Amino acid sequence: QVQLVESGGGLVQAGGSLRLSCAASGSIFSINAMGWYRQAPGKQRELVARITSGGSTNYADSVKGRSTISRDNAKNTVYLQMNSLKPEDTAVYYCNSLSRLGLPSWPWGQGTQVTVSS
Fold first, then answer.
1. What is the number of other CB atoms lying within 10 angstroms of the CB of residue 45?
2. Which parts of 4-62 fold into alpha helices (H)?
3. Cβ neighbours of residue 70 under 8 Å, at least 6 residues apart?
4. Alpha carbon of 88 to those of 15, 40, 91, 114, 116: distances in Å?
5. Helix, strand or coil for residue 118?
6. Residue 27: its pLDDT value, please?
7. What single string gives the DSSP state of each residue in 57-111?
8. What is the Cα–Cα distance from 111 to 104, expressed in whole angstroms?
9. Beta strands 10-13 and 112-117: pairing type?
10. Which of 97, 11, 85 is nearest to 50 (CA)?
11. Are 107 and 2 in contact (CB under 8 A)?
């Protein structure tokens, strides 16, 4: 079974940057679209960035222009570089594979906490 391990979160001041990583076990990583999600306290989990197997990317308006998703298929890892962080970016960040319907398709990892102070 595929396992996802997110890392790279932390406490940063507004305007700062973080690079999140998500390592996936399993050999099917390279053929899957991958996405970064986040869940703030009291809110639903939302998809903020996705990248196809071919490298095409899409972003939610909330992070567009400030974040870059990338992947290294050789390392079974997907990244999310976040710049100009805002307090509203505070959330637990998760990654997951995306099905053809755009739905998360693997068991969730533990996530990584991002806290942005004002």
1. 17
2. none
3. 51, 78, 79, 81
4. 12, 9, 8, 10, 8
5. coil
6. 62
7. EEE-TTTTTTEEEEEEGGGTEEEEEE-S--GGG-EEEEEEEE-TTS-B-S-----
8. 14
9. parallel
10. 97
11. yes
pLDDT digits (tens, 9 = 90+) for 36-57: 999 999 999 999 999 999 999 9
Q: Which residue from 114, 113, 115, 94 is spatially nearest to 47, judged by alpha carbons?
A: 94
Rounded CA-CA distance 10/8 in Å is 7
d(CA 62, CA 19): 17
- Three-state SS at 26: coil
Contact status, residue 23 vs residue 5, Cβ threshold 8 Å = yes
pLDDT at 118 over 80: yes
DSSP character at residue 29? G
Rounded CA-CA distance 55/87 in Å is 29
Cα 2 from Cα 25, distance rounded (Å) = 5
